Every structure is written in structure tokens, then in C-alpha cells.
Amino acid sequence: MEISRPVLLGAALLIAVLLGPWLARVAVRLTTRDHDAVPSLARIGVMTGLVAVLLVGAVELTGLRPATVALGWAAGAAVVLGAVDLASHRLPDRVTYPAAAVCAVALLVDAAVLGTWDAFLRGLLAAVVSFAVGAGAAVLSPDGFGFGDVKLLGLLGLVLGWFGWGVLMTGVFLGLLTGAVVSLLLLATRRAGWRTAIPFGPPLLTGAVLVLTLGAVSLG
Q: What is the structure's pLDDT at 1?
């Protein structure tokens, strides 16, 4: 029996409401490295809202299929990683690694069930290429691009590469553009100097969300 889209969207919202407070707690504890830290109500509200938007977007984009699990997990990880990176300039492996593993397995199941092998193999190759390019950037500019960013690029390569090389390149470009615009705004408002470290994680994640939101995708 086919599940209607309103039911799927309602389920996505319910999952977001249930997951939001937990993700907020994970984020604040990773940020502070305090296992007893408790998030504020404002943080819980913002993170729950973001998760809701991303999960609904994932359902709208792919419907109900194994790949939706990959997008949903990546969405939750993105919210946590973005929050931690903004606060402490770190992208914890304990979030990135599980997200990459779950996304890879979900996309593999999608390929086995729906025959999307080309998309799956492209996603794997894109992950390797993205990681390699990021590692090169980290070696050339270790102060500006950390290995947390490199691992995040690998994850984004897997997810965006599944949709297509053009989607991946557009997403990375939008991420870099977002970072540049934010940096200029901070400089213009004197909230940062030329030597101020700007976290790359949130702009890269924003670029990924933008490219999928703008519809620059075609399902494999």
C-alpha cells in the first residue's frame, strides 16, 4: 500500500519533534565537552525547527525509499555539526563517521532495491574525490582548512554525488560563496578581522542544502 505524501510529511515532522531536543543536547555536550550540559530552550527550538525543515525537504525530494534514510540522517548530522562548528570550530568524528556509514549503507540498499547502482557508485567516487581535494587544501592551508572539514567534504561528496557531479560542484560552490559572503559581512561590521578563523562547516552545509532546495537534482 502506497503511503500518501501528507502522511509522510507528518511522520517527518513528528520525528523532528522527537529528535530535536536530543540533537540539541548532543550538540551542546559536544561543544562544551561536558556530558552533563543542558541546552537552552532557545537552542532546542531552533535545532528542532531546522531538523523539521530538513526532514520535510528530504521527504519532498525523494519520497519514501532507502535513500531518504541517508538524507534524513545527514540532515540530523548537519544540524549538530553546524552548531558545534559555529561554537567551537570543531567537526566531531563521532558525528561525521556514523553519518557517512549510515548514508553509505542506505544508498547501497537503495541501489539493491531500486537498481540505482550508477548513482551509488558515483556517490562513492565523489566521496573519494571530495575527500582527496579537501585533504590537498588542508595540506596547503592547514590554518584555514582543517581535517574535520576534509571529512565533511567526503560526506557531502557521497550525498550530493549520488544526485550527480553537477549537484556536487554546485553545492560546494554555493558553500564557498556563502562562506565568502559571511566573511565579508563580518569584516564590514568589524565583528571579525582578516586573521579571524571562520568555520567552514556551516557554509559547506548551507551550500548542500541550497543546491538540493533549488532543485538542481535528478534522481538516479
A: 47
- 78 within 8 A of 209, measured Cβ to Cβ: yes
Residue spans of beta strands (DSSP E) within the chain: none
Contacts of 110 (CB under 8 A, 6+ apart): 65, 66, 67, 70, 116, 119, 120
Going by pLDDT thresholds of 50, 70 and 90, the confidence category of residue 124 is very high
pLDDT at 216 over 50: no
CA 127, CA 21: separation in Å to the nearest integer?
30
* pLDDT given for residue 194 in this prediction: 59
Q: b/e per residue, 199-209, with b = 16+ CB within 10 A?
A: bbbbbbbbbbb
Phi-psi region of 198 (alpha: psi -120 to 50; beta: other; left: phi over 0): beta
Residue 187's identity, in one-letter code, is: L
Q: Which three cell numbers stand for residue 96?
A: 561525521
The answer to whether 66 and 106 have CB atoms below 8 angstroms apart is yes
3-state secondary structure (DSSP) of residue 130: helix
Dihedral angle computed from the Cα positions of residues 134, 139, 142 and 146, in that order, rounded to the nearest 10 degrees: 30
**Cα torsion 4, 6, 9, 11: sign:** negative
